[in-house]
Design goal:
single chain, 243 residues, alpha+beta, 4-stranded mixed β-sheet, 8 helices
Length: 243
Amino acid sequence: MGTFFVYILKASVCLAAFYLFYRLLLSKETFHRFNRLALCGILVLSLVIPFCEITIHDNTEIQQTLVNFEQYIMQVDDVIQTTSVAMVTPSIPVWILLALLVYFLGILFFFGRTAYSLAHMLCLVRRGRKEKLEKGTILIVHDKDIAPFSWMKYIVISEKDQTENSKEILAHEMAHIRNRHSVDLLISDLCICFQWFNPASWLLKQELQTIHEYEADDSVIRQGINAKQYQLLLIKKAVGTRL
């Protein structure tokens, strides 16, 4: 447990540092595909780098402090082993045990929240009327008014949107499916479950969602759909038809 917590802390520091560099250097660029790859690369690097060991012979004060902190956390494993054999507890700060408890409770909460969201989405997929589209994509049509969305190979849409704006909406959601944006969001959600305390994990997901929308909108325009009509549709979806 202590080893896992140390790994999560190192990964969170890497994620925060890389995301900060991304915000400073790349966030203003309009190369959406490159930015998406950069964000996915940040996720991968933040998971891999903590496994790398760097040895520095001349210990600095900061490095020694980090080493001592890591040793404190690693003692949690000793606590579990010694208490199962004998009632002997190593000296370890109580606040570290409380922090570990809060952290693992947070993991359970966010895993539960993610599972609930997926279950609710699967209910929407099962209850609607199904229509097969190109390349194995399945369209789910609901009689109630819901916001259109896509997940993996499914597109969920209301009958009203299918009647009024099916061409633009389907082109937009098909772009999400072709680019496998759902996979990015699923990975970022798993990252949030383990790093729920790290603001960088939440900001990275928001950045990915924004890039996904830019990529999908660009794909719609490239298919020859009128840009002004599509902009009007986006405004209607954002603020309502009456406004």
